């Protein structure tokens, strides 16, 4: 296979030029980072599972009319997506108190929030992704008021849909992070859901036991990280066809 041009290497994925203009290939790595990349490690099979989980969730969301960048999965670790101009925001939705919300505001982890809360963080590793308000977002031109309205509407729909879907398989969607991007078509701009939706950027708790089934197992050294990601995929009914033994996937990326 011809070598592809690498566009970007991030903490969890590598982006390659896609086969057609306006497309890119997302390659999912096993690398894991936490606390703004101060903690680094690998979670064996994570890339394969996240590729599959993100494909599944983005496909279900497209079915209810949420526009996404996802086109199709190419292999165990790669998916083809529409190339977008990423809006430099991490859009976080919280249903239950956990993580930074608990530490910053002193609200005990596990407290059900009175309503879903949306937070914005400026995507900038150098600044450690600081929290920002709509004022900052519009003043600095990262997104317009209309863009934010659209993002909020989509985010709340995604939250309701995913909360229900996951609760159906015994998982509480505690919180998660979304990224959005712009696609230009004949001078018209559309916002679409981009990046990935996986246990790397969701907090997922077992509905019965409260056990964590997401990246917090890695962040907090709780052990059984691989097993937790696998269990999420198993409950969604999407463990890779080839079986657990093949989770390492192909060694080469070119
Ligand atoms: N459809 C897309 N088009 C262009 N960039 C994208 C798309 N989807 C996600 N991205 C960007 O690609 C990168 C994915 O790699 P990742 O390892 O998550 O990076 P990071 O370390 O920046 O979080 C992110 O910076 C994300 O914003
Ligand atoms: Mg990322």
Automatic annotation (TrEMBL):
<dbReference type="GO" id="GO:0005829">
    <property type="term" value="C:cytosol"/>
</dbReference>
<dbReference type="InterPro" id="IPR033934">
    <property type="entry name" value="SAICAR_synt_PurC"/>
</dbReference>
<dbReference type="GO" id="GO:0005524">
    <property type="term" value="F:ATP binding"/>
</dbReference>
<keyword id="KW-0658">Purine biosynthesis</keyword>
<keyword id="KW-0547">Nucleotide-binding</keyword>
<comment type="pathway">
    <text>Purine metabolism; IMP biosynthesis via de novo pathway; 5-amino-1-(5-phospho-D-ribosyl)imidazole-4-carboxamide from 5-amino-1-(5-phospho-D-ribosyl)imidazole-4-carboxylate: step 1/2.</text>
</comment>
<dbReference type="Pfam" id="PF01259">
    <property type="entry name" value="SAICAR_synt"/>
</dbReference>
<dbReference type="GO" id="GO:0006189">
    <property type="term" value="P:'de novo' IMP biosynthetic process"/>
</dbReference>
<dbReference type="GO" id="GO:0009236">
    <property type="term" value="P:cobalamin biosynthetic process"/>
</dbReference>
<dbReference type="InterPro" id="IPR018236">
    <property type="entry name" value="SAICAR_synthetase_CS"/>
</dbReference>
<keyword id="KW-0067">ATP-binding</keyword>
<feature type="domain" description="SAICAR synthetase/ADE2 N-terminal">
    <location>
        <begin position="6"/>
        <end position="235"/>
    </location>
</feature>
<dbReference type="GO" id="GO:0004639">
    <property type="term" value="F:phosphoribosylaminoimidazolesuccinocarboxamide synthase activity"/>
</dbReference>
<protein>
    <recommendedName>
        <fullName>Phosphoribosylaminoimidazole-succinocarboxamide synthase</fullName>
        <ecNumber>6.3.2.6</ecNumber>
    </recommendedName>
</protein>
<dbReference type="InterPro" id="IPR028923">
    <property type="entry name" value="SAICAR_synt/ADE2_N"/>
</dbReference>
<keyword id="KW-0436">Ligase</keyword>
<comment type="similarity">
    <text>Belongs to the SAICAR synthetase family.</text>
</comment>
<dbReference type="InterPro" id="IPR050089">
    <property type="entry name" value="SAICAR_synthetase"/>
</dbReference>
<dbReference type="InterPro" id="IPR001636">
    <property type="entry name" value="SAICAR_synth"/>
</dbReference>
């Amino acid at each position: 296979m011809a070598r592809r041009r690498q566009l970007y290497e991030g903490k969890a994925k590598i982006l390659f030029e896609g086969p057609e203009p306006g497309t890119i290939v997302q390659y999912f790595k096993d690398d894991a980072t936490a606390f703004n990349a101060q903690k680094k490690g690998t979670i064996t099979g994570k890339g394969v599972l996240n590729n599959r989980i993100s494909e599944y969730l983005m496909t279900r969301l497209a079915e209810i009319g949420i526009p996404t960048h996802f086109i199709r999965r190419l292999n165990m670790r790669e998916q083809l997506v529409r190339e977008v101009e990423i809006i430099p925001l991490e859009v976080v939705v919280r249903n239950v108190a956990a993580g930074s919300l608990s530490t910053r505001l002193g609200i005990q982890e596990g407290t059900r929030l009175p309503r879903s809360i949306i937070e914005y963080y400026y995507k900038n590793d150098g600044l450690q992704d600081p929290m920002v308000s709509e004022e900052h977002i519009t003043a600095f031109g990262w997104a317009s008021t209309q863009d934010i309205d659209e993002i909020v509407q989509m985010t709340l729909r995604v939250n309701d849909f995913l909360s229900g879907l996951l609760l159906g398989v015994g998982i509480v969607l505690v919180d998660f992070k979304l990224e959005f991007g712009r696609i230009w078509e004949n001078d018209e701009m559309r916002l679409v859901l981009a990046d990935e939706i996986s246990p790397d950027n969701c907090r997922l708790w077992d509905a019965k036991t409260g056990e964590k089934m997401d990246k917090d197992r890695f962040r907090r050294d709780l052990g059984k990280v691989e097993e937790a990601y696998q269990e999420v995929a198993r409950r969604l009914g999407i463990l890779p066809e080839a079986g657990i033994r093949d989770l390492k996937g192909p060694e080469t990326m070119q």
